[in-house]
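[#protein-structures] MJ: dropping Endonuclease/exonuclease/phosphatase domain-containing protein here for a structure pass
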Amino acid sequence: MADQIRAVSLNCWGLKYVSKDRHERIAAIASALARSDYDIIALQEIWVEADYNQIRQSVAPRLPYAKLFHSGALGAGLAILTKWPIISTSMTPYSLTGEPTDVFGGDWFVGKGAGSTTIMHPVLGQVQLFVTHFCAKGGEEGPEYNRTYRLVNAWEFAKVTRQAAEMGRYVIALGDFNSIPTSLQMNVILKHTGLVDSWAASHTHIPPPSGMLSPIEGVVSYGVTADSPLNSYRDSAPSSSPIVRKYQGKRLDYILFRHPIPSATNNHLPRLTCRDSQVVFTDSIPGNSCSYSDHFGVEATLFIDTQADAEDDMASLKDASAAWSDTPSELSPSTITEMMGALNISYRISLQRSRKELTIFGSSILLLIAFIIGSAWVILPWLNPVFVLFVIYLSWLATTKLYEGFIFGNWERKALQNVIEELELYETALATQPPRY
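AK: finished. structure tokens for Endonuclease/exonuclease/phosphatase domain-containing protein:
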């Protein structure tokens, strides 16, 4: 239907050799999507190209246009499939995506970023779709600097989506933001871009929980998509997270939208609103007891109204969402201060860590020299293999610490410094001139 857009976002948990029941789950996801009536599908963690091709082929009769985004050593794991023609694509890698020694975290090895496709919609014209997956490390509790990488992801994502709106395009952004709705990261995204959270827009009268929720209430009323007891891949042990205990999980997956920045030539545009959004893929896959993924999906139906009167339309929507407001959409001074504080602390921690790692590098080199020289005086033959193993270990340790302390450390601090300087300039601009919109 031309008067609405149905969109879905799903983290497929498709890591090769790591994700449990991957083949069965991907087949079930492909089958479910083939039976659906979505106009836009956004996928995350779809790292195996054969899995992507399986899903793409299953939905091709309805969604013939698709893009798998390539980035990083193992790929971005991001894909968009759509009903309407794609006229351009781009991939914006995030400057900070994890630490190289955090092997189990995995963020460093994949190309975390924002994938984008611009489609030609028959009513709205150019619509820029974004799909993203933020860094997972940091949790939700504790000091904000624990989530610095995710905060940098949010700032860089906000910049590219805001730019799309400034170019006169509708924007729909989907993905796994690894951030709860009240987090600083989501505050940065929504305030800097004017994007509207489709779930919040369609669930405006849900009060905060006053007692213990059931897992079903957490999903239906509060949009829980991760860490739900209803998911077969959740750890059976009680969670230590207050947020998980309060809501029976976390809402980490979003569908966001907004209209183009109003101008003299486009001040009366079709209205885009969300009246329906829900969590999906909550059941077990047919014939099996496992869930479709370790995340549930989220869907939204965006309605297009081309008949509303321009002045009445704007006035009625200013209180409801920034998607149609021509009032300023900028970060508050308190948000900027909180961001700057977290980034500056992370910068100092990075500097201290680099010094420690370079000290380990220097000590490893000295020990390496000592072992090499000492091997000349080894009398017992069985000690030679031990010396060789120690030399191999020290060589690896020295190389790793040199890379971590010097190359990666400098890279990390330069990325942090770039964002800090951008925020300083942004704060100065807000203090000296009115916001643009």
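MJ: nice. Residues 335-432 form one domain.
AK: one more thing. The longest strand covers residues 271-280.
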